[in-house]
Amino acid sequence: MEYSIKLIGDWYSAKLYSLISKKFHLDTWKGYIDKKLDTIEDIYSMAAENFVISSKNRAEFLLLGGWFILLAGWSILLVIEILTR
Q: What is the pTM of this model?
């Protein structure tokens, strides 16, 4: 008897969900949400790829900046030595 009541309760819940789904167009909403989640996932993956590339570029610019500072320092020392002779 208890099993029959559960079946009727499940049937009622399924019927109620079906009516609510039709009334509020839940399938359409689910489609829109899935599309938006796919778009967000694409944006996230592109941003992650660009961050990796930009961190490599930052390291290269830092290295070039260091070499430039070193070259400028040696040039200043060379000019000072030439002027003091």
A: 0.49
